[in-house]
Amino acid sequence: MLIDFLNKNQISYTENEPLAPLTTFRIGGKADIVIRPNSEGKAAALIRFLNDTGRKYFLMGRGSDLLFSDRDFKIPIIKTDLLDEMRREGDLFTFGAGVKLSAAALFAAENGYSGFEFAHGIPGSIGGAVYMNAGAYDGMIADVCVSTTYVNAGGSVETIMGEAHKFGYRHSVFMHRENDLILSTTIQLVPGDKQAIHAKMEDLMRRRREKQPLNYPSAGSTFKRPEGAYASKLIDEAGLKGYRIGGAEVSEKHAGFIINKDNASFDDVKNLIGFVRDTVKEKTGYTLECEVRIIEQE
């Protein structure tokens, strides 16, 4: 029934698709089906169909904060990478949910607008960034976000503005709306010197390369920053830098990253996350909250 609907509505999909290449951790089994709507209308129709037929589904952007189980994933995955429109109207920039943050930052820079430099180098999408209020180097989506258009669980297209996003540290209202599919987001930037904007972006990228283990698969910072401390400092002080379980390792370059050092399995990473959390709690009293979304199969 689902395949017939997708074919009838000319919605792109693949069956038995490996998940590992779709995530920055490079870990995961196969997905029974990955669906990629390329327009607002097709996305809304898809959500309505799944809702009407009582089918569960899983929403996915660029996979930069996900750790999938090695088992096959039976629930349909809706991937937003084909929602990739970018447009500008004055100082307002609208980006489809699947647009890479680095591409959005470059688009803004080429148009001579500042305020989104911090996003350059974050390995995620606009939709995922809104979902978790992504940020780096003293900047975050909440600083620039004006509105977000999404499909709700009933298949209707809605738009929220400003404070309705309920942004907080690595948090937005969409974390409580797991079935709402983000379509696009509009941000407001300020005019700036194009050369200076590019220079700032290049400087931030240089700092990333110097401090982060970008040569290994990971999901970025593994843990959220605890109040009054830094996760990487706590992990380092607990003596865990370089600690390994199977092919997973606490990065020797940056203790805040758990990396896929050598063909790590789902269990390797999950067990290392748990070990780090337990050890830091025992030695420092801090309870680390995982920033990575761990997706286990039903």
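[next item in queue]
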Amino acid sequence: MKREGENGMDKTLISMEGIDKAFAGVSALKQARLDLKAGEVHALMGENGAGKSTLMKILTGIYSKDSGSIRFEGKEAEFKNPREAQDAGIVIVHQELNMMNHLTVAQNLFIGKENRKGRFIDDKANNRQAELLFQKLNIVINPKEIMGNLTVGRQQMVEIAKAISADAKVIVFDEPTAALTEAEIAELFKIIRDLRSKGIGIIYISHRMDEISQITDRVTVMRDGEYVGTLITKECTKDDIISMMVGRVIYEAPKEKSNVPENAPVVLSVRNLNAGKLVKDVSFDLRKGEILGFSGLMGAGRTETARALFGADEADGGKIYVNGKEVTIKNPMDAVKCGIGYLSEDRKRFGIIVEKTVADNSVMASLEKYCSGLFINDRRIKKDAGKYVDMLKIKTPSVDQYVKNLSGGNQQKVVIAKWLIEDSEILIFDEPTRGIDVGAKSEIYSLMNELAKQGKSIIMISSELTEILRMSDRVLVMCEGRIAGEFSIEEATQEKIMHAATLRN
């Protein structure tokens, strides 16, 4: 696509042709291709497992290609590691964050390129440089804060700042907005437009269709590791892209009325729950077969409420009742025994063990069921894991595949399988479709609705208002650690939810 008249930039920065890659004999890429021009935002789209992240990891030196060619600024190139790619001017902002949680924000930003005084690292200079960078990007983060203390959304902004600080010619954004608030997304788009105006080429991986139309110039679609086609964004529709991605029509109508019977019993009651600074006197009920949506801005206390309820964080006070009986939940094992399952927003830290197999991860919460004395029934484990691999359409060659080799969306499905095998009656889904493509999203929506029909009760935390309105029977809105609003799905609107989410207590 020509970009004549926009800063006079029309040169090709990246050209990837005929890229093949296989892992353990399983093909991940087959004749994949992509080109990127200077001063362009180029979307790379496809379902989970389509090969998008693999292609980008080859470009940035994380993986080596089996065959094909890569040209960077007109010259043949193949980077042996990410440092070589970064030194050449190609950086990637990963969907799965690559931070040192025990170090400060500034130390993470400048690791390997720190300011020094003689042989010693100059922390003051690094902190000052980080402050200047954040000011330029309109990001409010303390450079001295320990990285592990930040929310996923804040960590993502640090990752983005780190990439931008590298003086890159090409930046790959892999699901950059998955954990960001609407305000943070708006700021990110300003940054991206500024980078584009300076001739930087941007490859933008996202499953959010509204973002693609707002920020990109072209769209390349992949399916099953292969190149499908490239479209000019302003000349195509959402349906054009989706049909190329999945080969079928995906449509999810917003929910118009609650599916919960009026006489449905209350399965979970939370009264005056307090935990840390972000959970203040939270009270609510959850009914059998209900999908209860939790909305609110980043930092409103939604995830903190879920973690306190599940026993992952210590509660400072309050009472919890399951099926009318008061229970004490001091740790996740107590919650599991009470029939509560929790799908975390950060699956890698809290949901899966990437060095274990699909089968191992699937039965992690219910291993006792498969033990007889000192023996573990591996055959039964693989049989049950296989059942849920089929049900959830997890793309894996077998249940013996290591979870680290699966795409992000398929890893998320493994976490869901874990709680379905445990047969939890109350499920907390924290950002269940974060980083998941439109096809897999539709499958998870259908699954959640089916679980609710079967009598499972679901708390769904989501930052996407369209998702809240599409899935919830009832909506609770949090602001600054408190319940700031409650709406039936019949009366809920984006405007009402946002109004409640921004009310200060």
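[queue empty]
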